[in-house]
Design brief:
The chain has 175 residues and is mostly helical. The protein is built from four helices and three strands; from the N terminus they run E-E-E-H-H-H-H. A three-stranded antiparallel beta sheet has the order 1-2-3, with no helix packed on it. Helix 1 crosses helix 2.
Length: 175
Amino acid sequence: MAETNENNTTTEPTTEPTGNGASAPTTEPTTQGGEQLTDKHGEPAISKGRYEREMKSKDDEIAALKAQLEEAGKKAETGADALKRVEALEAQLADEKVTHALEVEGCVNAKAAKALLDDYKGDVAALKADCPYLFRQTQTGSTGARPNGAPTPTSDDLKARAKAAAQGKLPNIRR
C-alpha cells in the first residue's frame, strides 16, 4: 500500500533488518515513477516517520545505558564499601592477634605494650625483656599461706593438742 504526500512522492513499505535478526516494516520515500528520493546532497532520503522511530530507539538506548551506568556506579560504591569493611575487619583481626600474644606472655597493660611494640618490630619477647613492668612477674618465695600438700591436722591430732593444752603443756607456736 503506497502513500502519496504533498510533494507528489509516494512511500513504499519495505522491510528493514533490526538488531535482533527480525525485519521491521519501514517506508522508503520514492517518487511516483518508483525511483528512490535523494536529498540535496545526493544521499538517499529518509522519511520523517523513519527518522522519528530511529531517534526514539536511540533515545531509549541512551536511557537504558544511563540506567546501566547508574546501576554500575551503585555497585562500585557498594564494592568500595565492602572493601573498606574487609580492610577494617583485617585490621581488627591483626590487633586482636597482637593483644592475644601479649596476654599469653602475661601483659598487664596491652594498650601501652602495643604502643611500644612497634619500636621492637613486633617482638614480644624483646619487649618483655626491656619493659618487664608491663608484664606479670612470677612470684618466688613464700606468701605466708600453707603450701599446697601440707598435711592438715586430723581429729586425733586435734584431740591430742586439746589434752596437752588442758594439762598446761602447750606446743611451741611459731609467730
